[in-house]
Amino acid sequence: MRLLVTGSAIRGLPVVTIDGGEDVAEVRDVIYNPEAGHIVGLTLNKRGFLAGRRREVLSAHTIHAIGRDAVMVDDESSLILPEDAPADVGAPPPGRDVTGNEVLTEGGASLGEVKDIVVLVGSNGEVVGYEIDTASGGTGYIPLPSQLAVSGSALVVPDATKDFVEHDLVGLGAAVDDFRSRLGLR
Amino acid sequence: MSDRLTNALGRKVVSRTTAEELGDLVQIVIDVKRRQVTSLVVGKGRKALLVDWEQISGFGPDAVMVADDDALHPPRDDHEEAAADGKLELIGKRTLSDAGNALGEISDVIFDTDSGAVETLVIGDRELPAKSLLGVGSYAAVVTAPKAG
Known about the structure:
The complex is a heterodimer of chains A (186) and B (149).
Chain A: E1 4-6, H1 7-10, E2 14-17, E3 23-33, E4 38-45, E5 53-59, E6 63-66, E7 71-73, H2 87-90, E8 102-105, E9 110-120, E10 127-134, E11 139-143, E12 149-150, E13 154-157, H3 169-182
Parallel strand pairs in A: 2-7, 8-13
Antiparallel strand pairs in A: 1-9, 2-3, 3-4, 4-5, 6-7, 8-9, 9-10, 10-11, 12-13
Chain B: E1 2-4, H1 5-8, E2 12-15, E3 21-31, E4 36-42, E5 49-52, E6 56-59, E7 63-66, E8 72-73, H2 78-84, E9 94-97, E10 102-112, E11 118-123, E12 126-129, E13 133-136, E14 141-143
């Protein structure tokens, strides 16, 4: 059983220092690398209502953990200027937004369209699944293998994925490990 | 002897040399890394002063005895300033695990009145050893993630 959170739920979370207990920023947006299946960084807003954008970003390697209630960093030096960040974070290549991409199985069945990413709580941005608009019209959650083919308009997932379309995050949290062991990933 | 912060708050602070009542205990200031009470905040607002733990001659059930009237001093650094301003109030402080999950509010802190060692944090009805505490700030206290948290 794993705790999960959607990408949209991460937006607006406070960024809190572990050693200081201070809320130094809040999450503006998520920078995601679909090939890697991992969040590579976060853009930031100043803390507080309508406080505006912060130029600094967080790179995944300086994120201690993304949780349900906060993003934890060691201290304020984890916030870096985009020019000092890895290129992936400071100037992410275009075409990485997976929203709206069609999810196709290797056997050629469409499972639906990607709505959001699903992140493992407590990790520094490991994406373990997608929230999708299913072909039948509802919302579903699918687990992801660690690597998959992404074209910018569609992504290809193993056939086994169709047996793991869950109705909620709790279901997906329970399914992730089963799915990965079925694929021989762990 | 162990005491609960909720019991100790409001206890009068008295000078041992003059028997003068100097004020009420309003807050304890802790050094997270050493898990130690380093000073006490006496009085509120602009009148808030601090007394170092070393200056306390007896932390009793009815009064906290300090060496003399001069033991009280205004804040000497940013940390003491924040404490005197009430920003590091422990009771009611939001807690976050280092995994980024809210665990509830601190309902009590148990410490040793002889040594000043912080022993236990009470969060809701869950007790965590003081070594779980990683940081305390104006926004939250951060603790090591307990199992399944």
